[in-house]
Design goal:
single chain; mainly alpha; 434 Repressor (Amino-terminal Domain); 2 domains; 2 strands; disordered N terminus
């Protein structure tokens, strides 16, 4: 049985019954995103507009533009959604090319 969660400021750790601490970032790593130019390339390859991406990841079109121009980086749930979208596009592209093992998020 898992004991109550203990929060240690930025270190967010979970205390488990076996007296072992596990850093939550080990369980839920922050997704890695491709470079901004690759984000644009993938979006354009799949014929998707910035507005459509924005709707999918629940931000404004202007934020997607900032992500693609390297002026801002998504965080939290937005980063996860964006990484999942980009990974799906990348994997689809590589499956078409016969290289289905590539994952742009590094997972």
């Amino acid at each position: 049985m898992v004991a109550d969660d203990c929060i240690d400021h930025e270190l967010r750790r979970t205390y488990r019954e076996d007296d072992d601490y596990m850093n939550l970032s080990d369980r839920n790593p922050i997704p890695t995103l491709p470079e901004p130019s690759e984000r644009i390339r993938l979006r354009e390859l799949f014929g998707t507009t910035q507005s459509e991406v924005a709707e999918h990841i629940k931000v404004t079109r202007q934020m997607v533009n900032r992500y693609e121009n390297g002026r801002s980086e998504p965080t939290g749930a937005t980063r996860i959604l964006y990484a999942e979208l980009l990974t799906a596009w990348s994997n689809t592209e590589h499956e078409r090319m016969g290289d289905s093992d590539l994952d742009i998020t590094g997972r």
